[in-house]
Amino acid sequence: MENAYCKVLCELPTRTRRGNLHWHSVKGLIRNEYHMNWIVDNLPAASVVEDPSSADVETSYARGVPVGYVKKGKYYIYNHAQIIVKYHATASGDARVVGVFAEPFSVNHRARADGGLATCSEAAPMTRDAATRAGPLEYHLNSRVVYTYDVVFEPSDVAWASRWDIYVRPGGDAQREEAAVHWFSIGNAILIVLTLGGILALVLARSLRADLARYARDEGEELLGDGDGADESGWKVLHGDAFRAPECAPLLCVLVASGAQLGCVGAVVFVFAYVGFLSPAQRGGLLVALLATYALLGGLAGYASARLDKATGGRAWSRTTAATATLVPGACGAVFLALDAALLRKGSSGAVPFAALAQLFGAWLTVCVPLVYVGAALGYGRPALEFPAAVARAPRAVPASPCLLQLLPALLLAGVVPFGASFVELYFVLDSIWMGNYLLGFGFAFGGFALLVLAAAEAGALLTYYTLCAENHRWWWRSFLGPATAGAYAYAYAAWYFSANLRDANALTAALFFAYMALGAAAVGLVAGAAGFLASLALTRAIFAAVKFD
């Protein structure tokens, strides 16, 4: 552990040809506040950065070291880094790294006659006063950038077990402001859910109760011979069609089952992350937990698809079960393999090796698929789900719907509610994935996820009720697709995020972003759609069970 000062890393010219620092690319990185992420002993470097517009100096954690900064329309590049490595000495005489800090400087280096640098000393670390005297390095075309660094070792009282505390439980004004945003987001989502829940309760308490009272009165008049039931209207007239199996019923069963599986996976992983089982020190631990939980919950998907398929009169149980086991994993795997092939062609270190892919395929084939078939066997072995009304021989004609209940407006309105309950937390999730920031508030993320599911269930139930009131019995797919459009809103939000934060990315990065975000948006849509459908199914069974039919 020897300190090192004023070490020259490299010297690069700024030109536009290949192999040197590209002028326009680096300007874009500086303008968009890109950071370089450095890792020492599995710890990310926390940057100590001076605000160019003031004399403030703050420490930011897990955000990397900025490329440069912009001041008064001019671009300045950070070309010197003072790396401070904090270590904790044990009783046995060993030393373990417990902190890494990097303070960047923009220094206009000048050479001495002997070839050394006159702007820094090999006997002492760079100071902010020395950097100020040398002046910042303005980044412009046809200049030369000399990169230098210091390494300083400092003892620390922080124990090895607590070295991640500054990342997972940081302090400071920036973190307090972020927590305030989280609380505002959760409060906004709770308000949306409570408002929608209040509307649903009002509908069930007033409109539905009035419908039930009217139907009971009509039945009494018929029994007394005072009426002929000719004025029967509303959702009751759909008793012979409300539980008619929809078109492409097996596909709907597979999508709902996959959405339920993904929803349970998200809930389990968020809970484990919140209680501390998934530490950021375990690189890739969150992804491994997601994949393992998904495989282990394959039985849930098989059971749900089997129960729904049997309720809708499905007979091709083997085809439905096979689709449940392969549809979502197959689509995700195809997209991932295509992107991984592109990374391999570019020689990227981010490409997943073939051995890891073989392990993933083996885990899916030996764990997930058998569990899906076990769950399906249990589901098909149970009695079919009973409906309170028999299905008529001929389907009823669907009358013209009001404007807001037509297919496209209804789907868009139903999807905006769950998206509105979670879009702020979605920003922090995107930031953690694409900007290298840690998702610190797993509790907030879990709250946003739970509120998304609740809002989707309420939106689906309301859409289904008003669809039935319009004497439209085709509620099955609507109850799923309406809340599922939250995924489309999430994808549009991701596109805005890309244009705001990653617009200078290269073509491969853009392809990675939009492909992975498509998978994420599809997952959001499946979870929201499953919640909306299951809530609608429960509501429909409940209201028709409260009415007597001839």
Concise account of the structure shown:
The protein is an alpha/beta fold. 55% of the residues lie in helices and 13% in strands.
**Shape, principal axes of CA atoms:** elongated
| Structural class by SSE content | alpha/beta
CA-atom Rg in angstroms: 30 Å
Percentage of residues in helical conformation:
40-55%
Strand content is 5-15%
Indicate how many domains the architecture comprises: 2
First-last Cα distance:
88 Å
Beta-strand segment tally: 13
Major sheet strand order: 2-1-13-11-12-6-7
Distinct helical segment count: 15
Stretches with pLDDT under 50, minimum 5 residues:
none
Order of helices and strands: EEHEEEEEEEEEEHEHHHHHHHHHHHHH
What's the story with the biggest beta sheet?
A: 7 strands, mixed
Mean pLDDT: 80
Question: What does this protein structure show overall?
Answer:
The structure is a single chain. By secondary structure, the protein is of the alpha/beta class. It has two domains: 4-168, no CATH class; 176-392 and 422-545, no CATH class. Helices cover 55% and strands 13% of the residues. It contains 15 helices and 13 strands. Strands 2-1-13-11-12-6-7 form a seven-stranded mixed sheet. Strands 3-8 form a two-stranded antiparallel ribbon. Strands 4-5 form a two-stranded antiparallel sheet. Strand 4 and strand 5 (43-44) form a beta hairpin. Helix 4 (173-224) packs parallel to helix 12, helix 5 packs across helix 6 and helix 5 (249-274) runs antiparallel to helix 7. The longest helix is centred in the middle third of the chain and has 52 residues, at 173-224. It is elongated and about 100 Å long.
